[in-house]
């Protein structure tokens, strides 16, 4: 009798299932096979200036903004030069270092420019980072063309996250027949077959050391029994290598990369070996890799939260925080924060890579220093126009880069004077172009100055910021309701205007001059509603300006305006103003067409609403019962009894 044959041993299985493969194809944050890369440009500002000036890569160079350094290339770092030290200190450490100042805006200019021959004045110039933003957009273009299926998140002007899960899934299935044959029939919970013993190409990446390994082992290729998490990381390393090579070949910039299973580990990995290198954080190396860091250096664990934890634990070292259990953390942190910290220090991060390449807001600001503090509205308006030029140039650059027209909806102006601070916000009106931004900004500045009540409360100006936000996509040829009313009004005859009378009150603000027109699409009564200043009439005193203006030696004398009139008691408007017979307000001649359009548009709007009211059926009176309604409870007077929480709308 033949002996029974022993069953063949079951081949070893992977730790991962077919469901995990499906999650990988969808870039799920819950997928254990997920691959995220962080690509960081090496000393980006310094590289941009080296490329612009043709500086050899071995020459020490630093970028300065006023007196301090904001970027230092690696040859200068080898000499001990670091960021945030002064240019004088850098010269002492490295006499041969080349210092380059960032581009600047100057009052009255319509574009930024470099001043390589001399150091620009901090009081009379505003720094510009637009050259670096332009190069950053070129790099994003290379990223998109090299990894078109990856999810790309712009984390900063010089760093980006990429979720490579989807393209890795496609390559993984295409290159592994054992997965391709069973991918359709495999059950979700069924374990995948092991990839087997193979030689992985890590494309020159540094493999972060596991316990007991030397930090430099496994730099090129490793032959061992692997699982699919190692395979997908190796594929990701190849993609990042090709991406970094493309940036170098097309633009001449070096960058470093980190490849891991989440954003936190990828960001730490990109800083592991720099410059122009990349590192891979495998699953078995996560905790040893984290233990060599201070937890305050981990993404989102610095700041106030990190300080709070340090005060409680007494150490910044991550191994000193690991013994704390979740109940220990909840004893001094909120429950959700404690849970997040507990998972983060163990390498767990479910933050998605979000495609945030589009700008949400833009800000232009300037802090002023003595002796060149703006002390008159004319100086403030000059800087305001610089802010508009700065913001509009960035809007146009983004439009050219994305091929999508996007315009802001809201503008905010903040004005910090000596002992007083004012800010105003309003929608951007009158179109979507540069002139609309300028008119809105000028309206806001007038509102701030009117609220200040004169010179003494606000001047001199210490800081001014202009912010535009609420960006929306615009289709070519589309318009809003305001544009419709403007076109309708243009086809109708304007209402007659009368010459301004001598009894009309004058604003405390300068009227537009021939050299610098100031326009607004808002009716003056609307401006009153925004600024809420008292109307300047015979019963409301107007704060008189100073009878003389003494500009500082560093500033040119401002042009004469009604605000600096030598006779502050007069309230008669300039004879060039006309008095509107409909609203009885003085209007500059150059604003007449828009002012007339405003009246006609309001009449059209009023007529439209009246027609809507006539066509809308009137609701039943409170004492009438609705026809066909049954079962309603009545109270005295024939009214329906209201349920709890109901209210009656009275028309």
UniProtKB/TrEMBL annotation:
Annotated GO MF terms: damaged DNA binding; DNA-directed DNA polymerase activity; zinc ion binding
Any one Gene Ontology BP term: mitotic sister chromatid cohesion
Region (Disordered): 495-573, 609-651
Residues covered by the UBZ3-type domain: 573-607
Localisation: Nucleus
Residue ranges constituting the UmuC domain according to the UniProt record: 36-302
Gene Ontology cellular-component annotations: nucleus; replication fork; site of double-strand break
UniProt keyword annotation of Zinc present: yes
Protein name: DNA/RNA polymerase
Keyword tags: DNA damage, DNA repair, Metal-binding, Nucleus, Transferase, Zinc, Zinc-finger
Main location: nucleus
Bias kind Low complexity: ranges: 499-515, 538-552, 617-628
Top-rank lineage group of the source organism: Eukaryota
